Structure formats: C-alpha cells, structure tokens
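pasting for ref. prot 1 ->
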Amino acid sequence: MTTPKFDDLFSVRGKVALVTGGSRGIGEMIAAGFAANGAKVYISSRKVKACDATARRIADTYGASCTSLPADLSDLAGVKSLAVRLAEREPMLDVLVNNAGAAWGEPIETFPEAGWDKVMDTNVKAVFFLTQALLPQLRAAAQGPSPARVINIGSIDGIKTGTFEACSYGASKAAVHHLTRFMAARLTRERILFNAIAPGPFPTWMLSTGVGYGGKTEGVDWDAVGERSPSGRVGTPEDIAGLTIFLCSRAGEYVVGQTIAVDGGIVASA
C-alpha cells in the first residue's frame, strides 16, 4: 500500500482564484483567506472604486497578489467582459468562487418583477454563464496535478424558509444549490469539481440591511444578532475562508457536488 502523503494537505499556494462579489462581505473574506495563503487572487464587483480599494487593501495586508477586475454581473455583457479580461491575464483558472449576489426585500403582495429579475439574473444566471465563459481556463487548470474548483455561494435560505420578506432570494439560492449538483454531474469527469457553500449569518452589508442597521458593518451589535444561532455568534472570516480553502485544497478533493451549510447550527436546529 502506498504511504499517504499529508504534506500541504490544505495548501492553495500558487493557485489562481477569481472571487466575484469580492469587494466586501463574504467575498472579501474568502479573497483575503486565499491571498493570505499564497494564492494569486482576482476580485470582481460592480463598484469600481470599492473593488480597487479592496484589492489594494488585501494585497497590502497580506503581501500578496490581489487584482481588481470590476464588472456588473447582472447582465451578460458584464459577465462576458469579466471572462475576457480574466482570460487576457491568465491562461488557467484553478478556482472560481461565484459569490456575487443580490437581494430584494418586499412583501409578497407588492413584490415587483424588477426585484425578481434582478435577483435571479445576478444570483443564478450569472453563475451559470460566467462558469460557462471560463470553462477553457478551468479545463486548462484541470490538466495539472490538482483538479480545478468552482465554489458557488448559496445560502441557508435556499435550504430552509428565510426569515425576511425576500421571495426571490431563497428561491435563487435553492437554484444555485441544484445548479451546483447539475454541473458536478456533467464536469467532474473533466476534473472540474463543483461544490456550494450555504452561509448563515455573517457580519456583512446584506445582513446588516436585513436586521435594521442600514448596511453598516461597524458599530453593529453582532453579538445580539448571533444570539439567534445555536453557536451564539455570527460567522467570522476564518469560518468562511477556512471552508472554501478546504474545498479547494487536496484535503477537499473527494468532496463533490455538495451544499455545505456554514451557519453555526441553524439548519440543523430548524
């Protein structure tokens, strides 16, 4: 029997990673985790100045490579633009994290078509078409010693009924979870491994708006928000980056087509 090798079991050093929605929140946490662990990181978000500033901050903080590629992924023009600009810089893409997302809160009785379309276009359509556009780079990376990875960021609201009046959000995230399984079934044999992560509460702009803080992440009583979780806290950057890095390292190579909740036990206790 071959002696198992446990060296660099959780390493992502030298991998090329693209994180969409990477200028803040969970996307920034994941991008920072990859950069801190030696990956070459690209981040994308709709707001140019915010994307540029976050890329500089991550690069300076961790002495790492982090490049801003701003794009609006709510339409196909933005999706294609991002794919082209990434391909101009990198012939291979080891990791694609589809994190860019949108939400719309409004009661069922008045929920508008615009709110439905915005959420579905950003959360589901962009995930599929960006992955499609980057298949050449993912396939090139998959020819190397390690499979390529695609991590789709869903939500526990796609597993259980959400607490907020956001009709299209939970539906979009459930679609992301199933799309992950579908893509895994089609592309695992090409050594492109798909998994989804379903976050619970994290200290982000999106959650802040939902709990009445208007998008602020500083000066928020996150301890009070976290009391609703069985773990008694909200998630941290280490929690979300740690799971993502595991899935993209040798340690996670046999985990395929799964949706993993990182929520402090909320789904388990629902």
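and prot 2 ->
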Amino acid sequence: MSQFPVRWASSTAARLRLRELMAAENVVVLPGPFDATSAILMARLGFEAFWGGGYLGSATSLGVGDLALTTMTEQLRFCASIVDATGLPVVADCDDGYGGVLQVARTVQAFERMGVAAMVFEDQAAPKHCAFYDEFPVRLLEKHEMVAKLKTALDVRFDSSTMIWARSDALAAGLGVAETLDRAHTYAEAGADAIFVPCGNLADLKEYAGGWGRPEPLVMSAVNFREMTLDEVKMMGFSARLDPAAVILAALYAVEEVMGEYRRTGSLAHAGARSKTFEEFAELLGTETAVELEGRYLAVAAPSRADTSETAAGGTARSG
C-alpha cells in the first residue's frame, strides 16, 4: 500500500489476490472498516482484505441501521473510499442488487469500475434489512429470481477475476438448514464464486457447513460468534470470516470514553492514554509524503537561476 496523495494499485491484482487468499489453507479475515482511515490503520496491522458492509455504509453515511435506506451510489462511495485508501481487496456488500436484474447489471459494473474485488448479492426480497433484526420478518425471493440476478452479475462483469458471492438468508427466515443448503447449492450451480449464510445459532452453523460438500468456499459472519477462534472456523469448513462490527464498536467506545470525560471535566488532560497523537494521525494519512512530493515536483518545474538571469537580460535589452 502506497501513501496518499499518490497510490499505485491494480484492481485486477487485488481481485486475483482475493482469489488466492480464498483458495489458501488459512481462513481469510475480513474486518469491516468504517472509513478510509480505519482501513489504512488495519492494513498497517497486517489485514489483507476488507468487508465493505452495508450496515457500516448505512451507519456512517446516514446514521441509521441496515434498513435498505442507503442507495447504490451511497454504498458505492463508501466501498470506493476503502479501495482508494488501501488498494487491498474489498468485498462489497451489495444487498439485493438494489432492484431486479437490470439494477444488478448496473451495480456490478459501477462497483467494478471503482475497483472492488468481490460483490455479495443476497436473496432477501425488498425491502431488505439486516438478517439479525428480530423485529422485522425476513422475506426471500424465489430461487429462480435469485439465480437470474446471479447469472446477470456473472455475465456483465468486465473482469472475470471479479468474484460474485451469493448470500442466502434462509436461516434467518426460519426455513431451516435443509432449505438453506438447497438454496446454497442452487446458487453455486448458477456460478457463484462463494456462499455466505448469516447465522445466529452455532448448531445450525455446524450442520449447514457439515452438509455443504462442494468446492465453492463458504463464508461466515463473526457477529454472533465473537469468541470463536480461526482454527475453529477452519475446522467447521469455512474459508473466510467477516466481521462487520468490531472496528466501529471499538471506535464508538473510545469516543464515548474520551469525549464523555471531556464533557464532565472540561479537560482533555487524560485523553492521551486512550488516543492517538495528532502527529501519529498526520503520519497515518501520509502528510509527510505529500509535503515531500509537492516539494520535489515544484522544484523540478521551477525555473533555474540561469533561465531567470537570461530572461531578465533579454527583457533589459529589448526595453533599451
């Protein structure tokens, strides 16, 4: 990853890297940055790919939950900021594709142009919402409708290395493991590059993964299984684990701690123990690199003393 303001990154290289990671022995960890700066920090910590979550996009763009209120272009801008900041593979949560097959086609090509490595499309019927909201019923598309969306996405992508992941919310809809596996198999047969099933019950998660039996990689979410180790994830048969919430929850906790104390005491005297310094912040953003780059090119473009002297002499002669 190169620093701002000049970042060299190949979208195809990022896509191929994600495919390489998904095929490797180790579980791919996909944390969810809540903005470009948190993505840069996590890249420095060694994370190799990111989840561009719809919940995060909605929370950071609109300050609301995952309730299908974010538009395609708003989610596109959110994911593009992570791609641009890091150049690393980003898996974009594209909800239900923001409509039917025509909308899916536009979504795929728009997100591809912005450099994402993979897109996830789900089989919820509109209006969709977070699968873990118990307050709202989960309604699903018919399987053939989801297959139509997946085939559209696969056909219209510009770059064959771009991954198209299928997500089924059949477990969240209460349809059981058998229906979930039936849908997942159908989506894999349609050409999906990976399968993601949100799940809140460990027994269902194990039964679903144990009944998979196909080469396409499985993806799970850490939302309800925060204490599960990567070794346990691997043993169950999953190739990747995304974590949509850990980063923003930690950040919000820190903000509440520091700014709550500021509100109570009127002082930030003790904030330093729980905060980055401003100098560290500037360094993270590549400020020193930007200053050096600007100085280098202004120096190259600046006229030399000899050129200045000749110009001055010529001007004097003409005026005489």
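The beta strands are 28-31, 50-52, 90-93, 118-122, 163-167, 194-196, 218-221, 240-243.
The mean pLDDT is 92.
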